[in-house]
C-alpha cells in the first residue's frame, strides 16, 4: 500500500474532549487528543490512548465525552448510549493506575456515522491487511504526526486544528520484538512546539529512498508536552527547547491483533 509523504493527516483526526452535547461550546481552548483510523481483517477501528479515555472522568459529575468534529455539520460522539448512564465507546487496554502494565491504548469499533465523517473529511484507513514489514535494520528517520492541543487557532467561524508532523531519529532503532520505542532528535534551534494532544497519532517508518512510508506506531507521550509542564521543569532537566522526544507503542498486524483481544473485540 502507498502512503503520501505529505498527507499523513488523512489517517488521523483531532479527538475533542467535550461536555455532553457540547454544552461547553467549541473553540480553540477545548482540549484534544488524536485518533487514528485503522483497518484490520476488513473491519475498521479508531485508536487513541488509554490515558485519553480516562480523561473523560467516567462516572463523575464532570464527565466528558470524546467527539469528532470536522468540516461538515456532522458530530461523531463516542458515547455508549446503551449503557444506561454516560459511558464511553472506547475500550482501554490498561487501568488508570500510575504504573499500569500494558499498552497505553484504547480502541472503539467504527460504524456508519464514523465512516460518513471519514468521507466528509477526506480521511483514509491505515490498512494493516496490506501492511509490509519494513527493513528494521535501516535506522532511518521516523515521522510522528498528530494534532497538538496548544497549536489551534480560529478564523472566527471554524476551529483550525494544529497538525504537527515531527521527523526524528530512533537512537536505539525499532525492533519487532519490543512493544515500545522512542524517537529523539535535537534541532539547531528551539522549535516552540508542544506535543500534548498528539497522543493517539500514528508514527511512520520513512525510508531514505523512494519506498513509501510504513505505519509502525501509535504515539502515547511526547516532550515538550504542555507549556505549563515545560515551565515547571527543573534546571537539572536534560531536555531543552530544541529537543524532540516522542514515545510510541509498536504497531504491526500482530500487535493490533493482541490489542483487539485485550479490548474484547476479537475478529
| Helical stretch tally | 4
Assign a percent range to the helix content: 10-25%
**Terminal Cα separation, in Å?**
22 Å
Sequence of secondary-structure elements:
EEEHEEEEHEEEEEEHEH
Task: Characterize the quaternary organization of these chains.
Answer: single chain
Q: Which percent band covers the strand fraction?
A: 25-35%
Protein name: Serine protease
Organism: Idiomarina piscisalsi
InterPro entries: Peptidase_S1_PA
Description:
- InterPro entries: Peptidase_S1_PA.
- This is Serine protease.
- The strands form two sheets. Strands 1, 2, 3, 4, 5, 6, 7 and 8 form an eight-stranded mixed sheet that branches. The protein has a six-stranded antiparallel sheet with strand order 10-9-12-13-14-11, with no helix packed on it.
- The radius of gyration is 18 Å and the shape is globular.
- It has 267 residues and is mainly beta.
- It contains four helices and 14 strands.
- It has one domain.
- 39% of the residues are buried.
